[in-house]
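FAQ: What does a ligand-bound record look like?

Like this one, built around 6-O-phosphono-alpha-D-glucopyranose:
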Amino acid sequence: MPDAQTPTTTRGVRAAYEMIVVSNRLPVDYVESADGTPGWRSSPGGLVTALEPVMRAEDGAWIGWAGVADREFEPFAHDGIEIIPVPLTADELEDYYEGFSNDTLWPLYHDVIAPPSFHREWWDAYVRVNRRFADAAIEAAAEGAVVWVHDYQLQLVPKMLREARPDLVIGFFNHIPFPAYGIYSQLPWRRQVIEGLLGADVVGFQRAADAGNFTRAVRRLFGYATRGSIIEVPEEDGELRRVVARHFPISIDAAGFEEIARRPEVQERAAEIRRNLGDPETIMLGVDRLDYTKGIRHRMKAFGELLRDGRLSVEDATLVQVASPSRERVETYRQLRDEIELMVGRLNGDHGELGHPAISYLHHGYPREEMVALYLAADVMLVTALRDGMNLVAKEYVACRFDDDGVLLLSEFTGASDELRQAVLVNPHDIEGLKDAMIAAVEMPKGERARRMRALRRRVQSNDVANWSATFLEALTGAGKIPAGVSDSLSAAVSRLAGTERLLVALDFDGTLAPLVDRPEDARASARARAAVERLIASDDTRVAFVSGRSLESLREVADPPEGVLLSGSHGVELQLDDGGVTIELRDVEHARLARLTELLEDAASEADGAWVEHKPAGLALHTRRLPVTVGAALQHSARERIEDELPGITVRSGKAVIEFAVRSSDKGESLTRVRQYLGSTAVLYVGDDVTDEDAFAVLDVDDVGVKVGQGKSLAGHRVRGTEDVALLLETLADAREAAREHTSR
Ligand code: G6P
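The answer part, i.e. the structure of the complex:
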């Protein structure tokens, strides 16, 4: 049964999200049960399965349609994901979704297996609805946010976003094929669609061939220069903007599927399915949305002929076909259903026996556990799509077969066949070939089945959905370009620094010296980083400072700084130099403001369970990381309004799920400058990972070196991937400094 859940809403919240997914469908559809009870149910299709895990991890917002026409819903949280529904009227549903998306683009992009229809009013609706989705993202996105737009229904959104919000980082991923130019060029709006897509920074496809088709279409229609996966798009100001177009084959939560498959009750269910089917020798399985691209007719035809010719019998082999309902108001889909159901009836009538049907045909969707039990029961999985962007069913089957058994028969016209080379590959149009392949699959010896399945499983496990999204997001945000370790240019910069007379090494703590953890009090610098810091400060010509947003008290506790390390806390409000503690002296008026601020903020925090206030010498921070994003954002927003109203001129700084108020202003840049002047340093290395470190990068001189840890926009000249590489960088610097010293003393 669907996992229905009562909708919850957090009304009227406008939040600024750092990561937004935009897709036609939300991960949940609105449903009303027979007695009229409203609820939300997981929606169909591979996209949702692929993105749900990513979104939960990112604390992002998902913008999409709730699956029903003429209904408006407020934003709400579902299973840890913030949902922002976009409404569609019944007319728009007809023209934009059923019409242009699924009766123009879908058949066109799937190599015109069915004839596409071109209607100008459908196009108009497509433009209008794309605008609505774009507007929702424009409103919800934080400054510089990453917006990831999905699939053929929303190809105009990237350009609309770029025009309104050039600050955004925009990605697009096409889940379905992109056709060869000879086919694509039939589209009357072929230029507008490509212009829409080129609004993105990265346009992703399933297969290299899809990316190639797209790049060729760009060249043919616009004549833009392309080099490998880079397209140079001329901007109005004469600048060239580089758009990346390449393949990122999507995948599944392989470990999640395997975990379900290993459950005893799921295995028991698989055995039960087998018994219920009359204990045949071979169970063949097809699992598809009921779509003409899936080649369901071809596989049934081949199976029927094998029965007719006596190469298989219903006692030996049975076919289970799950065909989940899809797009039932589109005429081509209606016809398909009739044809399939006619075929099923004929085959069962001609070949079935009591207790031994030829085909068990199931026109429903099933919960994941039941699907996994079916995969485990199936000796041969039939994926015979005539054209398919990827086909995640093939990957799900492989992920579930931890017993290294079962045969995957896979159409070479699926994206998955680029990766799953050890499957039995077929051309589904070649019915004789398909029949032979089905027999080969049925008769395949156990050793060969195991060998092939092991190889398939390695592939699916190593490129799982987390890997897919990380690879895409890395390409999008630039982190993918950060080389592991210390890059050549960074090590050259380190060698230059090593020769300086009085060196200052200033280091942010959380996310730089210490990996980020769930509970701030658990943060600890890595042993390697600490050892390198100790080597650096062993000599008087090198000083180290820890520069943090934490209060000095909290910094001392978690960082346990070695003797001689200088400390800057509370974003530079507190400074500890060599003469010991420099706790700040608040003036009377600051004291009074801090007292009032404390009252106001404690008051605000008490409004939501899970919010808490952190006390600092000259300010307070309100933490909302344990609340749903919209609730946290609303709480921060109302607290900020009240506080700014009562305490004008107060310093406000917002971070990840935290907002800080200070009665004395300072930032890491001011603090770095003070430390540097105090020490008379001749050069500085500054390393940091957060937005607040940008103030420090901004005050660096030309001969200084700034290193940003991880992805995100930055003024720093260099990057490393993470805290391990920070430790390596500090070790490299310590080596170089010692070598330089030896050199001068010789
Ligand atoms: C394919 C498309 C998705 C779509 C899904 C279900 O996987 O790539 O974008 O959501 O089919 O189709 P539907 O029309 O029901 O959303």
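Follow-up question: can I read anything off the structure? Yes, for example: Residues 183 and 488 are 46 Å apart (CA to CA).
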